[in-house]
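Interim report, section 4.2 (structural modelling).
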Amino acid sequence: MLAPLILMLANPAAAGELRQPLLQLLNAYESGATQAELRALGDGVPAELMEIAADSAIPHSRRGRAVSALASYPTPVVRRFLEGQLSAKDLFLRRKASVALIHGFQDAALPTVQPALDDPDVQLRLATVRALHSLGSDKALALLDARRQVETDPTVKSALTEALR
Amino acid sequence: MRPIALSLLFSFGLIIAAACEPSADDEVEVIDLGSVSLSDTGGYSGALAVEMPALTTSAIPYCGGYGDNALGAVWTLTDPSGSVVYNGEDADTSRWRSEFLDDMAPALLPVSPKLPMAEGTWSFDWFIGAGNGGSIDCKAVIRSGMGDDVGSEATINVEIVFVGVDLDASSAPEDPDWQAVMDRFESEWGTAGITVNPIYKDFSGDLGRFTVVDITDDDYAEFNDLLRTANPDDPRSMTFFVVEEVANNSAGGSTILGLSSGPPGAATVQRTSKSGVIVSGIDFRGAPDDVGKIMAHEGGHFLGLFHTTERDGGQSDPLDDTPVGEASDNNVMWWTLTQGNATLSADQGWVVRRNPVSF
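Predicted structure of the assembly:
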């Protein structure tokens, strides 16, 4: 319910005009859109990325890439959108949102993503661990250290060990 | 070429398509080029001679074993007449190309009709960067017996290994979504005269580690380790691993739709970091057409094709008949997904039909 309101707040005039150039970037085989490519498209990109991420007619991987790209726009509107994705049902988009929150908002996102470390979905935990490792701040490493005490999945445990080495 | 035998073997309820076989005069052999000691801070292999016999169709000399943290490439290639046909100092204008790759650097000949195979002694000098462990092992795959007379059609045995996706070897041949994937893949490769012979397998390794293949912070250990499990029954096959996702959780990272080893891949060489292609299967139910295109594109890289024009508009492939820039947006090797049935050009077909894995 929150997503349409957020999209209205996020420059609706630009929505649609940028879809094709954005989809061309999001459709690239070997890598998603870079920050420089997104910036080159001008204003209105985050609004269109949120539209794409929320559009169930678009293939899952491209919606996920749109969520990932939102990490380049650390605004309050984007943050609320990503928090909405993190609490949604779609497991794939949840893990993309967790990673985007960590990279876009860094330590400020840690209270929001901390529950993802306890989530039953192994891949969400694993993606969150790796993104926190990549962030590498003291607070991120403290979260990982706490999770290491209780984690039972061998793949996630291995990622935690690697992160805290 | 022997008649294509799409025989189905029914065994314990599993349907396994048998590999097709090449004709008796179309052979692939591996020649040992020896080991070379290097400085761990980086160095050259020195000129390694590869004797191409009469009727050689193609070859993949390679040096490997320098680890996932070092990069290597061919720096100088000399043809049998003694002409330097490739130099890393002038790579953009060459008729040939060698990318810097981790762990193992295959070198495919030919990658363009402008530099066809020739009988005699070719000389390869690799440069391997720092952290190489002090030595490399070098070999050469040589396809011979037919020379340049490979015709306009070829078959490739394609082993497809499912890793943690909602599909398995027994259900894939009847699954309508997966068959839509294969229809697009086969249709796009078919524009080069390639017939795909699919052989399905289920992954028997560590699903927890490889369901999502992670390349965060450019750490390709998981990617390389999954490729190191490629081990088709017939080594003259190429392997596609279909995982849930190839993920880059680095800052600015995202899902990777597919990645090939190479280019080129180490065709017919199994259990190495360059022994196949990994495809994100997350879309195969919702957008099977796209997954088929990803397989066609990444498989093209494995077989020695480059992007028609790179994403930044800079470097183009070494082929004369592929359009440059946006004009090539209906080519299989365009850098982003195409609309409709993309095609391979005559020169691209010429390259892939000569690859050692084709027959």
